[in-house]
Amino acid sequence: MTDFQNEDKPESVKPRSRGIYLLPNLFTTGALFSGFYAVVASMNGHFENAAVAIFVAMVLDGLDGRVARMTNTSSAFGAEYDSLADMVSFGVAPSLVVFNWVLDDIGKLGWFAAFVYVAGAALRLARFNTQIGSTDKRYFIGLPSPAAAAAVAGLVWAATEYDIDGGPYVYLIAAYVAIVGVLMVSNVLYYSFKDVNLKEKVPFLILAGIVLAVGVISISPAIFLWMLFLAYAISGPLLWAWRKSKHKSSM
């Protein structure tokens, strides 16, 4: 490089780093792979494995952000990569798993219900990304996409584990999947648990309750995990109705 070229380049400008942080993005990649595997497994008729893979993606998705914050490796690239992985693992994968499981039997109505879910997940993620830092951290606006995916995948997991044929209930399942998709783009508030401080001391009964809950879930993970996330999905509309009734009674 000539002296003239060196003079044109300001000394204070540092070259932009083209690298990315490896550790948190490994967890994101694992979540993405789990979502992809769920789709492939459902295409081959392995619906229980597909549903379990979506729950594995949830665990990995919950770890990548925490690892990034703990190791101070957060980045704009990681945030964008995480959103794209979420769209696959919690948007496309659950809808295709339930579609391949039973919704395909009712043709256009089945893929319409699956598409409503996919569109809801895409809109939910886009809205969440644009509202970061401008909303109350204690609540999510709309059902979070991982919880929505668990509500759908949990149904498939529970039904296949107990050999329940979804055929007689296919229209109810289609309505269920579509409603979950709509809840993601609704203005219903869901508690985020982000104000829970895990570093603080808690009463012994709370720890005992957590141990008991883990023990109950271990009896039948398929049933109890589905019921857990189904209860969370229902909690939003119930809380909304309670607030409405409370507001009317105070007028």
Question: How are the SSEs ordered, and which strands pair?
Answer:
Blueprint (H helix, E strand, L loop, with lengths): L2 H6 L13 H22 L3 H24 L5 H26 L6 H23 L8 E3 L3 H17 L8 H16 L3 E3 L12 H16 L1 H30 L1
Antiparallel strand pairs: 1-2
Helix pairs in contact: 2-3, 2-4, 3-4, 3-6, 4-5, 4-6, 5-7, 6-7, 6-9, 8-9
Please describe what this structure looks like.
By secondary structure, this protein is mainly α. The protein has a single domain, classed as Four Helix Bundle (Hemerythrin (Met), subunit A) (Up-down Bundle). It has nine helices and two strands, in the order αααααβααβαα. The protein has a two-stranded antiparallel ribbon. α8 crosses α9 (221-250). The relative contact order is 0.11. Residues 1-15 have low confidence and may be disordered.
